[in-house]
């Protein structure tokens, strides 16, 4: 069995993080275009999981909180302004290894 290559792992993780950040504007646009509260919750859930897995804890937490808020509103109506602000802050950070 081959030995674990930490440098290769870090490079791969950095590539995944870069891809996630590059796709984040499209993910936020998709959230705005959801047709139902269930679809919005599903998108928020996926965003929270992906962000958390890649080390973007604040974005993950914000998405989870918004997912919960949408459950508290019968029509699923929530404001995505907090999510936008968090995403903007993350995109402005230099891309560093986790």
From TrEMBL:
<keyword id="KW-0902">Two-component regulatory system</keyword>
<dbReference type="GO" id="GO:0000160">
    <property type="term" value="P:phosphorelay signal transduction system"/>
</dbReference>
<feature type="modified residue" description="Phosphohistidine">
    <location>
        <position position="45"/>
    </location>
</feature>
<dbReference type="InterPro" id="IPR008207">
    <property type="entry name" value="Sig_transdc_His_kin_Hpt_dom"/>
</dbReference>
<dbReference type="GO" id="GO:0004672">
    <property type="term" value="F:protein kinase activity"/>
</dbReference>
<protein>
    <submittedName>
        <fullName>Hpt domain-containing protein</fullName>
    </submittedName>
</protein>
<keyword id="KW-0597">Phosphoprotein</keyword>
<dbReference type="InterPro" id="IPR036641">
    <property type="entry name" value="HPT_dom_sf"/>
</dbReference>
<dbReference type="Pfam" id="PF01627">
    <property type="entry name" value="Hpt"/>
</dbReference>
<feature type="domain" description="HPt">
    <location>
        <begin position="6"/>
        <end position="98"/>
    </location>
</feature>
